[in-house]
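General statements about sequence and structure are easier to judge against a single worked case. In the encoding step, the backbone of a single protein was reduced to a row of integers, each denoting a local shape. The record that follows shows the chain in one-letter code together with its fold in token form.
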Amino acid sequence: MKQLILVFIGGGLGSTLRYGLSKFLNNAETGIPYGTFAANILGSLLIGIILGFALKNQTLSQNTVLFLATGFCGGFTTFSTFAYENHLFLKSGDFMSFALYTIASFIAAFAMVFIGMWAVKFF
């Protein structure tokens, strides 16, 4: 039960931060979802750092990893919003934005996980 509460609280905090970031960064005029992109990229870097620390020296407890990685990062990042925004690009016929957003998101997110895990080696 404690683990469920940790994930619940972490997810709520992450979702709230993502909402604020999207409100601040998303551009209504151009329709470019900078906030979602930033949340997914930052969340990928953060999960790389968290899991890197957890694997490196076992300093993070299972509950801490659940709270931060599963809860916070799970709530902060959003694949469903990413998919919906791509749907909107396709629906409007903006194939260039669809391609750029999709490719940049995947490449940057994967890179950030690896960079986060790599950076932990120096701490």
Notes: The chain is about 80% helix and 0% strand.
